[in-house]
Amino acid sequence: MKIEKILNNNVVTIIDEDGIEQVIMGKGIAFKKVFGDKIEEKKIEKIFKLDSKNASERFKSLLNETPMEYVEISRNIIKYAEKTLEKKFEDVIFLALTDHLNFAMKRMKKGLPIKNEMLWEIKRIYRKEYSIGIWSINYIKYKLGVDLPEDEAGFIALHIINATLGESMPNTMNITKLIQDILSIVKYHYKIDVDEEALSFHRFVTHLKFFAQRMFSKKQELSGDDSLYEVVKDKYNESYLCVKKIRDYIKITYDYELTSEEMVYLVLHVQRLTKDKSVASNT
């Protein structure tokens, strides 16, 4: 590999065999190097393959204006998240998270922290990602001596959620709001508090994540066997009435019509959730 451009002592670009520019990172990788020099492979710590030219240009611009300690912190947060969630993320998360951290640090220095309006929902629905956010702000405090507010843990969690779902930030926020609204409908229909540690709760939330993702991407599943719909409707009538409220809310708010198959799955999940021994009645 030969150097195409030197961005700083730790970052260079190359042109791969397909003619696509890649960003190579490693401590001192460009020290005393010039255009056309070979890269010492033992110094390579990370290769970023960004598909679009626009993303590549944004990434190079970001690396030029961002302190390398922020870049390193972002890399380590992503490594920790991948290990915790046992999932490999696309390189685009590095661009988004590094940009966010750079902006967050500038805001903090100016005394202008931003309120995270979805913090409560994130803590409740995305517990693992939120725990990564908390780890991250503690790590930043250890490395930089900057005490970021809990809101920033929520913002970092959102970036992790985006990477996990493969969604944009607006879609992730829409998905989170929809899940929270559906949980609220169940809560108020049954007048209960649900034990959020219960397995049935986590299964329900997981189902809602994938349902919401399909809904916002307009990938509606074909309706299944209507005979099963009628059986579930009769057998679990109270859960069905609750899901009817969910269906009506989604139709009015998002102009999306639930299929009979989607209704069946929601009824079954609501039934499990509300019949769980860990559900505590408010009445």
State the gist of this model.
The chain has 11 helices and 6 strands. The chain has helices at about 55-65, 70-85, 90-110, 120-125, 125-145, 150-165, 170-190, 200-215, 225-235, 235-255, 260-275; strands spanning about 5-10, 10-15, 20-25, 45-50, 190-195, 280.
What are the key terms here?
single chain; 283 residues; alpha+beta; Transcription Regulation, Sacy, Chain A; PTS-regulatory domain, PRD; 3 domains; 4-stranded antiparallel beta sheet; two-stranded antiparallel ribbon; 7% strand; elongated; disordered C terminus; Transcription antiterminator LicT; CAT_RNA-bd_dom_sf; RNA binding; repeat; CAT_RNA-bd_dom
Q: What's the name of the CATH homologous superfamily of the largest domain?
A: PRD domain
CATH topology grouping of the largest domain: PTS-regulatory domain, PRD
Provide mean pLDDT, rounded.
Answer: 87
Number of domains: 3
User: Under the CATH scheme, which class of the largest domain?
Assistant: Mainly Alpha
General shape: elongated
Poorly predicted sequence stretches spanning 5 or more consecutive residues = 277-283
> Structural class of the helix and strand makeup?
alpha+beta
Give me the Rg, rounded.
Answer: 23 Å
Main sheet makeup: 4 strands, antiparallel
Beta-strand portion reads 5-15%
Secondary structure tally: strands: 6
Helical amount: 55-70%
Which series of helices and strands comes N to C?
Answer: EEEEHHHHHHHEHHHHE
So, CATH architecture of the largest domain?
A: Orthogonal Bundle
- Note the gap between the termini: 69 Å
Protein name: Transcription antiterminator LicT
GO molecular function, one term: RNA binding
InterPro entries: BglG_antiterminators, CAT_RNA-bd_dom, CAT_RNA-bd_dom_sf, PRD, PRD_sf
Keywords: Repeat
